[in-house]
## 1
Amino acid sequence: MARKKIRSATTLAIREAIPVRAGDGALAPNERKLNFGDRWSYAPAPEQSDYIRVRPRYQLFIDGKFRAPHSGRYFDSINPANETKLAEIAQADAHDVDLAVRAARRAHRKVWSGLPGRERGKFLYRIARLLQEKAGELAVLESMDGGKTIRESRDIDLPLVAAHFFYYAGWADKLPYAFPGRVPCSLGVAAQIIPWNFPLLMAAWKLAPALAAGNTCVLKPAETTSITALHLAEILQEAELPEGVVNIVTGAGDTGQALVEHDDVDKIAFTGSTAVGKLLTRAVAGTRKKLTLELGGKAANIIFEDAPIDQAVEGIISGIYFNQGHVCCAGSRLLVQEGVFPAVIRKLRDRISTLRVGDPLDKNTDIGAINSRMQLDKICELVESGLQQGAELVQPRMRLPEKGYWYPPSFFTGVTASHRIAQEEIFGPVLSVMTFRTPEEAIERANNTPYGLSAGVWTDKGSKIFKVVSKLRAGVVWANTYNKFDPTSPFGGYRESGFGREGGLHGLLPYLSLS
Ligand code: NAD
């Protein structure tokens, strides 16, 4: 009953908000509305894709060569924007995984671990330059296979992929300086399992530090987005990376499990869901294998009354709608201080109606396709639970393409901390908005989650940033910005968001033993 009262009061506040005029008759900044008129529209601006060579079949990459899977089985990779089959991907079983681990072990023993750091660095620089050279083609492939917009794959994913290789190339011959007074030594064979939301970027986050530190790798991409990893394998061949230093086995959870359970793996690096992360923790317990986990999140993005509201609204947009909301550190819980709640909600409602959902290969598209039918079903199920539990859904009126997997940019108001949409990762373009009165309440609400990956704070006051940030239990906190990534900066969480860091000097540590 009490909850209902609060909800109707907020709705009223939005409806009754009367524009406040400043002395000169102009609207106060918080009351200004975006007006795009109705005479402007975008012409289609498709990225050229007819030159892209998608192979009908992709094989496993083991010991420097492409080879058919032991089982002879393949599975389909679907373009989520039109539901057409893009290619067949080899399904690796325990036998293939064994071949890959053996190849990696041989390469570690015979070549890679004995190579001087500056030589390893040269290979990494070469890979980075080849990635830059082929960035256009890889960005298109990434968008076709995963549904992300070309704007993001071209301007964010691919530049960061190359930057990670460049950055860790620089560390390869400087490991003793990275850890003064210690003797760094590679671990051996690293098993690396990655998710589908940033396929090549996650591969780069894993491979670049592991190789710089002198390890060899067996990488398992996610089953819906394996294609660009296999194009990366071609780049590794072109860079003449010694055979077996990087091996790529494709397949679903079974393949990942076979890799995790292989006796001759020294290190497991996993990025994915918390549920699978917990399975891995159990599988590794009692073995000598080292483990790092980068798992899910339910980040709070906190807007204080003194924040620059227009910029904060842009931060909210990039915090939750970037990459269709398929982002572990997405600002998926918006906490707004009560005084600015009506203004923020109004601006947010206006802003999401300007977002363009559609063809990922169109350069004007803001929100691309949902990665898979399964993920779309998961988003719909959680949205339904939000409605059932009494929250109010705001969605712009828009026509979605008929074929493919789509979800409009959405947000919920009237959310309470106990709602599933406030607790569980939706991993889609859906935001849960809540309010707070004091900084203490904002901190308490932000920390009221089993996760601890990221958070955002928007305020005019530097002192408030320091005060609040020091009390937020999150691995990464952005102040007056959101979703900014850089290879020099460590990323990772704690609690149910995992442990270990990727990026920066810290990203080398999980791949080294220090004596
Ligand atoms: P997922 O856990 O289902 O799958 C991740 C990877 O693990 C895939 O390659 C999958 O095939 C493999 N896998 C599945 N079952 C396995 C098993 N039993 N043993 C070994 N491997 C197994 O996750 P997803 O749906 O692909 O990705 C989304 C999740 O990843 C979200 O929860 C998101 O928050 C998280 N994520 C975290 C980060 C981070 O840095 N913290 C980054 C990106 C994504």
## 2
Amino acid sequence: MAKARGLPVDEVFLDLEDAVAPALKADARAAVAAALRAGDWGRKVRAVRVNDVTTGWAHRDVIEVVEQAGVSLDVIVLPKVTGPEHITWLDLLLSQVERDRGLAPGGIGIEAQIEDARGLAEVDAIAAASPRLEALVFGPADFMASLGMRSLEIGAQPVGYRGGDAFHYPLLRMLVAARAHGLQAIDGPYAAIHDTDGLRHAAASVAALGYDGKWVLHPSQVDVVNAEFAPGQADYDRAELILDAYEYHVTVRGRGAAMLDGEMIDEASRKLALVAAARGRAAGLPRTTSFQP
Ligand code: GLV
Ligand code: MG
């Protein structure tokens, strides 16, 4: 937890679930809440992953952490979500604790981990289950186990698979559900911390697909993943150029479609460019080119 404070990440989640031994679950709640209260997390989103709703720990995880951490907590990560009722339960419980503690109603967000066959089959209903939802997060380890994939390497492609990316279907399915409900889509962990090339490949692939981020589980993974998700300067410049050129052609020339450097641009190009421009602006990239009619 001390190391995580200083890392250049957008969000940090403190775990009460699968990384905590059963005998230590209860003590971990107070440790996590104390770390949140102690502060110094900068602008990072502060999240806690509680145990899933089928365990005897989940309700106390939520109650104790929210009561003790209060405004120092931004988001609860709920694992192994298999249906909308899991989200409804957490939403109601959060509302009760918020009311009891005088916290802003609805202030604490929810990220839902989709990590088994049932969760994926229900992903649309899950994504629609609460206004608190902020993101859907893919859990490759539990997902691989749930489907019976023949691999022991979390997040890596199963050896022997010849069909391309073994995770393409769940990743795209989740992305569609997330976008249909205005949520972020986040990829899960890559466990082999010394396999930088494998991590880079996995991160590049989901970033290209449209994902908003990916978990890391070791400080050495941060720069690799950030680099793959960071918008490129050339893409950013091109996006701003398309926006300016399209604006010029529509308003000054009265045309809905035009050519820009040998490529047709129209309203759909503008929508695509808006996505890339928004990511570049959010990353603080400067513009290095300008549009000349
Ligand atoms: C993460 O929770 C995973 O199951 O991969
Ligand atoms: Mg998991």
